[in-house]
From TrEMBL:
Residues 4-51 form the Centromere/kinetochore protein zw10 N-terminal domain. It is found in: Chromosome, Centromere, Kinetochore; Cytoplasm, Cytoskeleton, Spindle; Endoplasmic reticulum membrane. It comes from Terrapene triunguis. Gene3D superfamilies: 1.10.357.150. Residues 430-560 form the Centromere/kinetochore protein zw10 C-terminal domain. The keyword Membrane applies. Its main location: nucleus. Residues 582-736 form the ZW10 C-terminal helical domain. It holds the Pfam family ZW10_C2. This is Centromere/kinetochore protein zw10 homolog.
Length: 737
């Protein structure tokens, strides 16, 4: 046991304790090495911190140094500026100001190093800049002096006459001290960034008081007055030859003004950036041109070139002079430096004359057409089958096409020569019947024909525009006339008839209008497009609806007059008889008045149909009222017969379609043709005076004239009303079946 304990102790000492001791000693050695490294690192860090502090101190001292330099440069620039300003060296003064501004910006940009003095420096710089601009403004006003009219609005040429522009030139006397040249003042403005503002204001005044008035008022002429040290530009008034001046005349005026400005003011090259760089220099004339040319060219187009566009294609060749003068005008402006680059909108507008001609022509045609449509309808002209629209001779189709047409017509003639009918149609078969139409509509049709003739000699594009312009004329008529003249067409029967004729006249011409010009228009319109036939039904319907509406009004008035006849009952009462007779007279009076109003206005066939329809309305109403009576005494029958005789005798007299009375008899004898109830009315008169046997005889077992007009029921009703209930009446009634 003791030996075991000894062995155990020895084992613990040598096998377990000694290795642990060795590990601890190794760890102590590593800790000593780390401690020495830490001391070395600490030493290095302390050295670097010392150097950084020295660097920060050096940087701060350097910033102080730069700030002092900038402050010195600012102060020096302000002093140099003051000296240059006193000597009127404006460009140098402006550049010194810009140097001071640059120094101030550098000072303000240093963050963490703000100075209280910067605010005072900024205020001083602003004051000196405004002082500089004041002196430059005074110099500018001495070089360029405006004398403007008291009124700010340009309302007349007389107002513009008060405008004067004074431009200072170099003094002629040796003892006079020359002021700073224009270039010096303007370059100083450029350095300070104020040139664009100053030039823009000058350009606005130039536009408003000189350039635009010269374009708008033909009577104004620019006048140049030269004095020893000044050139004065003002106006004189001359009587204009034309309402709108020619472009050549206006171009001459504008060129004269710009030449004066170029010679005494604008012939200067400036550096917009304020630096002496030849590549960045820009002509003052070019700068002004960029500001005003768009408005000047627009005004020239709207106030001048628009009115120079020819009114017809025959004068298009003369427009070459306008194009040439426009080219020369732009060339002179480019030589003076006002313009740069290629052709401007002004020249493009002048060269595009064909399109503008077509637009202007179409606009003029539509305006003229609308004026005709809104003129009075009652001013009329008589149209006969021999009437035709006077138009120039149309140009022949192409030679090749013409030759083909001739050959084709010969072949067709040879093939059909044996098929010719011996009975030939009259030359007036498809002619419009004699009637009256509005003078304005005749002129409207002539306008359409002449516009199409113009289209035949125009370019393809212009031809198409003019063709559709003519179509637009008729669309406009369809929309405008019924609305514009609506009240008169409803109230006045004559105007309704004239409008009916107008529509039929237009429709008649539209049938063949396209065919007449088909071979003379551009090939684009050749294949069926050049037609107006599609408009014909609309115009016929337009005229017919208007006239039928007037017919309904007249029918209503006739029925209203007959309503006062007290149903034609109890005619033995004198008061009732007088009322019925008065109603009949009023109906005849209305029909006679209409007959006179429509006389020689409507075509004869339309006139007779219209009057026949209205007379038929009156007779139908009388027949219906009489056949509705349940009891008619002998005296009633006599008086009803006398009333009917008035209508029978005087009714035909309302048919007076022609002015010559002897020619109207033919139509008065043909009343049964136009009045459907005429024979029925005559049979009614016979019944009112006939006995039972005569009535039965006229019935003739349903084959007589009475049976042709009345039904058995109507005849029986009349017999019961006229005759008392007897065996003879019963026998007669039995035969009516």
């Amino acid at each position: 046991w003791v030996f075991g304990e000894v062995c155990n102790m020895i084992n613990k000492k040598y096998n377990e304790f000694l290795p642990s001791m060795q590990s601890a000693e190794d760890l102590v050695s590593q800790v000593d090495s780390l401690s020495s490294n830490i001391d070395l690192l600490k030493s290095r860090i302390e050295n670097e911190v010392t150097q950084q502090r020295l660097g920060n101190l050096f940087h701060t001292l350097y910033l102080f140094y730069l700030t002092c330099i900038e402050l010195f440069q600012f102060d020096r620039a302000i002093k140099d500026y003051s000296t240059a300003l006193l000597e009127k060296k404006y460009v140098a003064a402006a550049r010194h100001l810009e140097k001071a501004r640059s120094s101030l910006k550098m000072l303000e940009s240093r963050k963490g190093f703000e100075l209280k003095v910067l605010k005072a420096l900024g205020t001083e710089l602003t004051v000196q800049t405004q002082n500089m601009l004041y002196h430059l403004g005074e110099e500018w006003r001495q070089m360029v002096l405006w004398k403007l009219p008291p009124s700010k609005e340009i309302s007349s040429a007389e107002t513009v006459m008060q405008t004067e522009l004074h431009l200072r030139t170099m003094p002629l006397k040796e003892d006079q001290i020359a002021g700073p040249p224009v270039a010096s003042v303007l370059q100083a403005f450029a350095v300070l960034g104020e040139l664009h503002t100053r030039l823009k204001l000058f350009g606005q005044l130039l536009l408003k008081y000189i350039l635009k008035p010269l374009i708008s008022y033909p009577s104004l002429r620019p006048l140049l007055e030269e004095q020893p040290d000044t050139v004065i530009l003002h106006f004189e008034s001359a009587e204009p030859n034309l309402e709108h001046p020619s472009p050549m005349e206006v171009f001459g005026k504008i060129t004269l003004v710009l030449e004066v400005l170029h010679k005494h003011l604008l012939n200067v090259s400036l550096d917009e950036c304020g630096e002496n760089d030849k590549d960045s220099r820009v002509g003052l004339a070019e700068m002004l041109g960029d500001m005003v040319w768009e408005e000047v060219s627009g005004c020239l187009i709207q106030e001048c070139l628009v009115y120079s566009i020819p009114a017809n294609s025959s004068k298009l060749e003369q427009y070459v002079e306008v194009i040439k003068s426009t080219e020369e005008f732009e060339k002179s402006l480019k030589n003076m430096g006002f313009l740069k680059g290629d052709a401007t909108d002004l020249l493009k507008y002048a060269r595009n004359v064909n399109s503008h001609f077509a637009n202007k022509k179409c606009q003029d045609v539509i305006v003229a057409a609308r004026k005709l449509m809104t003129s009075e309808i009652h001013n009329t002209v008589k149209i006969t089958p021999d009437s035709s629209v006077a138009i120039p001779k149309l140009p022949d189709p192409g030679a090749g096409d013409n030759l083909k047409m001739q050959k084709a017509s010969k072949i067709l003639h040879n093939e059909l020569i044996n098929l010719e009918n011996e009975t030939k149609l009259s030359q007036q078969t498809f002619s419009l019947p004699t009637c009256h139409i509005s003078v304005s509509v005749e002129k409207l049709m002539e306008l359409a024909y002449h516009t199409l003739v113009e289209a035949t000699t125009s370019t393809d594009q212009c031809c198409i525009q003019l063709f559709y312009c003519v179509r637009n004329i008729f669309h406009l008529f369809y929309d405008v006339v019924p609305i514009y003249h609506k009240e008169n067409l409803q109230k006045l029967p004559q105007l309704a008839a004239i409008h009916h004729n107008n529509c039929m006249y237009i429709a008649h011409h539209l049938l063949t209008l396209g065919h007449q010009f088909r071979y003379c228009l551009t090939n684009i319109l050749y294949d069926g497009a050049a037609t107006f036939v599609d408009l014909v039904p609309g115009f016929r319907r337009l005229g017919l609806e208007c006239f039928l509406a007037q017919m309904r009004v007249q029918k209503g008035e006739l029925l209203e007059r007959l309503s006062s006849a007290r149903n034609f009952s109890n005619m033995d009462n004198e008061e009732n008889y007088s009322a019925a007779k008065k109603a009949a007279r009023q109906v005849l009076h209305q029909l006679k008045r209409l007959g006179k109003v429509w006389q020689d206005v409507l075509p004869v066939n339309i006139y007779c149909k219209a009057m026949g329809t209205l007379l038929n309305t009156a007779l139908s109403e009388i027949i219906n009222r009489i056949t509705a009576l349940e009891d008619i005494s002998a005296e009633d029958a006599d008086r009803l017969h006398s009333l009917c005789r008035i209508m029978l005798e005087e009714g035909p007299l309302v048919f007076t379609p022609l002015l010559e009375e002897n020619k109207n008899k033919k139509y008065q004898e043909e009343v049964p043709v136009y009045v459907q109830k005429w024979m029925m009315f005559k049979e009614l008169m016979i019944i009112l005076q006939a006995n039972l046997q005569e009535i039965v005889d006229r019935w003739a077992d349903g084959k007589g004239p009475l049976a042709a007009e009345f039904s058995p029921t109507e005849v029986k009703s009349l017999i019961r009303a006229l005759f008392q209930n007897t065996e003879r009446r019963a026998a007669a009634l039995a035969k009516i079946k």
